[in-house]
Amino acid sequence: MNTTLLQRPTTQLELLLWSQQLQKVRFDEVAALRFLSNAIVSLRDAKTPELSTVGRYLIAHEGIYALCLGTIYLHGMLPREQEGSRAMAIQLAFELLDMTIRDLQQMLQANRHLEEIAGLASAPVAQSAVRELVAMGDRALQQARLIYPDCFF
Q1: What dihedral do alpha carbons 107, 112, 116, 122 form, nearest 10°?
Q2: Which CATH number among 1.20.120.330, 3.30.230.10, 1.20.1440.230, 1.10.10.10 corresponds to the domain 11-151?
Q3: Please, are residues 22 and 80 in contact by the beta-carbon 8 Å criterion?
Q4: pLDDT recorded at residue 92
Q5: pTM listed for this prediction
Q6: Which letter, b or e, does each residue of 52-76 get, where b requires 16 or more Cβ atoms within 10 Å of its Cβ?
Q7: Mean pLDDT, contiguous 10-residue spans, the chain (153 residues)
Q8: Beta strands in the chain (DSSP E)
């Protein structure tokens, strides 16, 4: 099936495929749009004040990560499940989305913080951290709209 959503792999993606950090996957437009939908819904839900601060932080992070996976998936690839694959996917997607170095550093820090709080019953997350993460997710969605306009109807 020919699709307008499937993108040509970049040289960097091909190198990561060769090094077995990424794997080719069967592309499906519905799955591609599901990644995007999950990102949009998660970032919207992360703005819900009735949810706990840590809950909103986790939801925002998962929304951004869904966008990262979707960005890579649009090229017919996904990361292999291995140590560091989540951070690699974030870095790669932020580069594909032409996000700033500051945003990338902030997101990688948020990823490290997520790993720190994952097992804690009551994790320390500031309201400002949630706001910053949601704002970054909104910027990433805006960049995705510019770079992959066919995915947004």
Answers
A1: -10
A2: 1.20.120.330
A3: yes
A4: 96
A5: 0.92
A6: ebbbbbbbbbbbbbbbbbbbbbbbb
A7: 77 94 94 95 96 91 97 96 91 96 94 81 83 96 94 75
A8: 22-24, 77-79
